[in-house]
Amino acid sequence: MDTKERFEQKGQGHVFQYWESLDEEEKRVLQEQADEIDLDELEVLVKQLVLSKKGSSTIDFSSLDPAPYEPLPGDILGDEKWQKAKIAGEAALCSGRVAAFTVAGGQGTRLGYDGPKGTYPISPVKNKTLFQLFAEKIRAARCRYDCEIPWYLMTSHVNHEATVSFFRENNHFGLGEDSVRFFRQGRMPAVDFEGKILMESKRSIAMSPDGHGGALRALERNGILDEMEAKGIDLMSYFQVDNPHVQVIDPYFLGFHVLSGSSMSSKMLPKAYEKEKLGHFCVLGDRLEIVEYSDMPDELTAQRDEKGQLRFIAGSVAIHIVSVDFIRKLTGKNSSIALPFHKALKKIACLDSNGEKVVPSEPNGVKFELFVFDALPFAGKPMIIETTRLGDFSPVKNAEGVDSAVTCRADQQRLFAQWLTDVGVSVEKDSEGVPLRKIEVSPLFGYDLETFRESWEKRGLDTDFSQDTYIE
């Protein structure tokens, strides 16, 4: 049975309605899009998420409790548990068991920037891009632990070629072409409220990325899991492209994951206020779950404990360690478990029944998405550890205001000023802790307080901070 016949059999024959009017190149593109679609999977999703009248939420909020986590000690160097974790994490790194993985399919549209988000310049003095900062953190960790640490980047159909070209033009930032691997995220067709696939044009289906959870099955479908296993890699450090503060390679985090026997571990950030847009780490029965901020009832987000702190305080910042064998269990063809799809009602530009383009003013269709944190309920012994805002999380998402380039650059400078204060250097700052003169520290000099302190003590720099300063 050919592709057209399969679509007709599933009631989606309209996808090829204009086939005969297309030229050969247009036919090739439409054929490739159609071949991406698992019609059996789509049929199930339409029945469950589009045609069903059941509510989408399965959370019993009356039984929801805050998830336990490993708190960050006041003196990490003097804490026996954390130092034991560090030793275990460093052993995993030295053994070549770790890879870095970045979800990098986004564009810089919300930043007013034309290009892949990872190519956005964000460092305060040198204007290094997000990709360069991550690359330098990986290079520094490779040097420190004398290991490879390959880097896998999941792009999208929109930015794949531009991302690959950017790395090539920058000589892969010194990492070596063979140790940086790119692959595309999967896509799903959008459908109308009757479950019919929407057409973007006569020659193309309205396709959209399948969500950050699609990263896990993209790893399997693109042969990445096989590559990792062949290299002896069984641990993957997962992070998103919009967060330059992330500790790309964190031996403490790796160590807690290894010692706990976890298959998926996460970092939590104490929420700054009730309505902060972070998912909540929660326990429902014996399962760890992340409840989105938009789904959490107001009365729960406002709950306080006996000390007056938020009861549901553990916020998710999309930083994980995932075991490769666990990803295999979730994505294998014979797997008995799988991430659930979620539906999102969207305004989708598409063709009407007369073949005319329509730009709707109200939601007219459904997109399907997977969320990576939905893997947590299936994970054996999931581990959560606390992190700090400056140490791990200052995303750049918006053109202005909260989580913008302005706030992110200010946070970078606050962090660098903290490091300098720790080694006894006085830095003049404003009332919000931002240095009066710009400061930037290369990750190759130090990518956290410990590595910065070591480099500072070895090199004994005598730096004048009365002007913009770059430490490398």
Structure commentary:
It is a single chain. The chain has helices at residues 3-9, 24-36, 39-51, 80-94, 130-145, 160-169, 214-221, 224-230, 251-260, 298-301, 324-331, 389-392, 405-422, 449-459, and strands spanning 64-66, 98-103, 151-155, 180-184, 187-189, 199-201, 204-205, 207-209, 235-240, 264-270, 279-284, 287-291, 314-323, 341-346, 350-351, 357-358, 365-370, 383-386, 439-441, 469-471. The chain is an alpha/beta fold and 472 residues long. It has two domains: 37-396, Spore Coat Polysaccharide Biosynthesis Protein SpsA, Chain A; 398-472, no CATH class. Strands 1, 2, 3, 4, 9, 10, 11, 12, 13 and 18 form a ten-stranded mixed sheet that branches. A hairpin with a 2-residue loop joins strand 6 (199-201) and strand 7 (204-205). Helix 4 crosses helix 9 and helix 7 (214-221) crosses helix 11. The termini are far apart.
Spell out the blueprint of helices and strands.
Elements: H1 3-9, H2 24-36, H3 39-51, E1 64-66, H4 80-94, E2 98-103, H5 130-145, E3 151-155, H6 160-169, E4 180-184, E5 187-189, E6 199-201, E7 204-205, E8 207-209, H7 214-221, H8 224-230, E9 235-240, H9 251-260, E10 264-270, E11 279-284, E12 287-291, H10 298-301, E13 314-323, H11 324-331, E14 341-346, E15 350-351, E16 357-358, E17 365-370, E18 383-386, H12 389-392, H13 405-422, E19 439-441, H14 449-459, E20 469-471
Parallel strand pairs: 2-3, 2-9, 3-4, 10-18, 19-20
Antiparallel strand pairs: 1-11, 5-8, 6-7, 9-13, 10-13, 11-12, 11-13, 14-17, 15-16
